[in-house]
Amino acid sequence: MLKFYYSLAPNPRKVSLFLEEAGLPFEAIPVDTRKGEQHLPAFTALNPNAKVPVIVDSDGTTVFDSSAILLYLAEKTGRFLPAPAARGDLLSWLLFTASGIGPYTGQAIHFKRYAPETLPYAVQRYEFEAWRHWRILDRHLANRTWMVGDNYSIVDMAVWGWGKSATSALGEDAWGQLPHLKRLLDTIDARPAAQRALAIKDRYQFKTDLDDQARQAMFPHMTRS
Ligand SMILES: N[C@@H](CCC(=O)N[C@@H](CS)C(=O)NCC(=O)O)C(=O)O
């Protein structure tokens, strides 16, 4: 059976959604990143980047990085891909989400919530860039139902994964300024598979304390030279 190494964070969330949408049987293996389990040798043998998500398919194929996993699973199952004519759009928006939405939103959250000191320049830069990227998605969705092509695809799943955490970067009132994006996220939330994907939180109690062990595991730059 496919093994899914996960936490409750945005990138694994995208993969949870695909697995539930496709109805693929999987074994969910929690990686408690606040306990440092992402750095255990058995895990870095699967993903040298020491981050979730990772899958190990039933034939032993290992794939890390959420966008790679989405593409791999979509191509393997033939599900949630747009028509071949939209391949360029698929790659463009999937990688825009991977390289723009994720990193800028993640860094905005980091500097607003987790940095040991307030650095106004860093907060301003990452918040600005996060907003800039989310606004591009919102404008793109103004006159279309789905991110690419005519149907729900892995790009919508990738956007949803980060969308569930976007207000941590953009503020609780962000949706008033991103109405088209909000419509997409609400449409996906209403799908039973999305609710099952979110219910993965009930399978394992992840550590919530952001203590020294968690900081060292997740923000190693703070303690290593
Ligand atoms: N590019 C990677 C990023 C993966 C990533 O940043 N994962 C986070 C959770 S969203 C993680 O494992 N954080 C724990 C850590 O950084 O130690 C992907 O898309 O999968």
Description:
The protein is built from ten helices and four strands; from the N terminus they run E-H-E-H-E-E-H-H-H-H-H-H-H-H. The protein is globular. The termini are far apart. Helix content is 52%, strand content 7%. It has 225 residues and is an alpha+beta fold. A four-stranded mixed sheet has the order 2-1-3-4. The chain has two domains: 104 residues, Glutaredoxin (3-Layer(aba) Sandwich); 106 residues, Glutathione S-transferase Yfyf (Class Pi), Chain A, domain 2, CATH 1.20.1050.10. It binds glutathione. Glutathione binds next to helix 1, helix 3 and helix 10.
Brief characterization of the structure:
This protein has helices spanning 10-22, 41-44, 66-77, 87-114, 120-140, 154-163, 166-170, 179-189, 192-198, 212-218, and strands spanning 2-6, 26-30, 54-56, 62-64. It is α+β, with helices and mostly antiparallel strands and 225 residues long.
